[in-house]
Amino acid sequence: MLSQFKLGAFPDVIPDHNQPTARWWSHPETFTAADLERYKESCINVFHIGWGTGRVQPYEDARKVLAARDGFIGHFNHDFLRVARADDFIRLKRENKIGIILGFQGADHFRKIEDITEFYALGQRVSQLTYNMRNAIGSGYMDVDTGLTPFGIEVVSAMNRTGMAIDLSHCGPRTTADTCKLSARPVLFTHANCRALNPHPRNKTDEAIKKMAATGGVMGITGVRLFVRATEPVTIEHVLNHFDHVVKLVGVEHVGVGSDIDLDGYDKLPPALKRKMLTGYKSDQAANKTDQAVYKTDQPLNKTDQPGQKTDQPVNKTGLPVREEIRGEIDGLNHPQRMFDLTEGLIRRKYSDADIEKILGGNFARALGQIWV
User: Fold this and answer.
1) Cβ contacts of 289 within 8 Å, gap of 6 or more
2) pTM of the predicted model as reported, rounded to 2 decimal places
């Protein structure tokens, strides 16, 4: 089962030059044999990278990032493959390589429509339209959402024509709905969770999930703690609840893994950097808030979720412990081989082998194959 195609998240260029992973792209010689072995042992054979372009000089920065990543892949071309076509999923398994899909968290680098073709030629295959905030294309989840702009409508059509995948993970609800209605190809939520289970505004409503599925798209479930559950404790069972919810809502063909966490994860970052990254997603910063109650599930959880469980933690109005320490990860999904734990969880939830193969990457491979034409 674990030899099947699986999608993960490769380390981004994080804003701390003391971090070894931040140097891999510009100094590929710092990527050691031990690093490579860790990635191979993860049994994840495709990683999707989503880099934030920023707003100062996004076009120039995006070109530099793609050049650096192409240099890294070229330096290790006996171990890595830039995934640019649907048949590359077959090729990387045949050649026993690790695939890298190049993308961006936001599309501020698209100054004009012609830039989409340019960046496609440079290797970009996935792009979020917005990253949290409004840009020339549409609105992020932290804005009052005014939907796609006239330029945004052109961008969606051009991405369809070019064969670049549209990612709506950080978009606001109206921008999401507009894009789903307009797109002639599947759209993706590469890393998002269900707002019905956790009312964080970065999560997707049932309505949005249905609209995404109607395009033939796929939603990647993330294990980032604050998107999984609003209150403590948070376990792998709560992550599995998000998979179950999407399956019950739109079918197993529209859900996958979108961890939003690299092999080392957020919790191993320097404390100041971790806090900066995770507190950027506080739900009270968003304009698209919801008063929706936390979803009550019938799925059995571990014994810490049972009524009457004693805790010394402070509690909120729900009666459940509130968070004091900022954590990004979840026990059981906070190590390089977490795909084994996730697969075991899906087996516990009685998913068939065929459905687990779809969830672990088959669905994304199918959707990307319909987009990359």
Assistant:
1) 201, 283
2) 0.84
